[in-house]
Amino acid sequence: MSVRATDEVCVYLKHPLFSEQPHKDLPEILKSSFCGRFAGRWDDVTTDAGAVWALIGRAATKQT
Fold first, then answer.
1. Is the pLDDT of residue 19 over 80?
2. How far apart (Å, rounded) are the C-alpha atoms in residues 53 and 42?
3. 30 Cβ partners below 8 Å, 6+ apart?
4. CA distance 16 to 54
5. Are residues 31 and 44 in contact, defined by beta-carbon separation less than 8 angstroms?
6. For a 10 Å CB count at each end of the chain, is N or C smaller?
7. Do the beta carbons of residue 41 and residue 50 sit within 8 Å?
8. CA 53 to CA 36: how far, in whole Å?
9. Is the pLDDT of residue 21 over 90?
10. What is the pTM of this model?
11. Is 49 buried (19+), middle (13-18) or exposed (0-12) by CB count in 10 A?
12. Is 60 exceeded by the pLDDT of residue 64?
């Protein structure tokens, strides 16, 4: 994953369209910013994008 993608997520979350309910839109923003940089689909763990989404999911689970 990358600093550039993380920065992109922060920019989206500061935007007025997302700032009202950032937690509601966070999964879609993360999919777009992180998974969109890899081949495949976010919901297919056999692809690079799916592997990235699985890592994000595991990290989020550890935080809660």
1. no
2. 6
3. 9, 56
4. 29
5. no
6. C
7. yes
8. 10
9. no
10. 0.73
11. buried
12. no
